[in-house]
Amino acid sequence: MDAAQHPDTDAPSTPPFPVVGDLAYDTVRNRYGLVMERTPGQVYLRPRGGGREWAARPEHIELARAGEALSPQVAAVNARSRGEIL
Predict the structure, then answer these.
(1) Taking the domains of the chain in order of start, what are their residue ranges?
(2) Tens digit of pLDDT for each residue in 35-61?
(3) 16-48 burial, b if ≥16 CB within 10 A, otherwise e?
(4) What is the mean pLDDT of the chain?
């Protein structure tokens, strides 16, 4: 059998690319944002709490890890439990 029939299992896998609604990290601006739209050559993100949308190149965007997505939510719940926010 040739290599075309059996893909190389040692080949590095590419990380999943964020889709609309995902939390992503902009490596140039060092910011997290929700993916609002994707076009060829552009990804549009908006801060999680709202705010001004910005555009980034797809090669500068990474999918946020589960802990990165959860941390602000946990912090808000903890602050609420301490009576710091309503």
Answers:
(1) 23-81
(2) 999 999 999 999 988 899 999 999 999
(3) eebeeebbbbbeeeeebbbbeeeeeeebbbeee
(4) 80
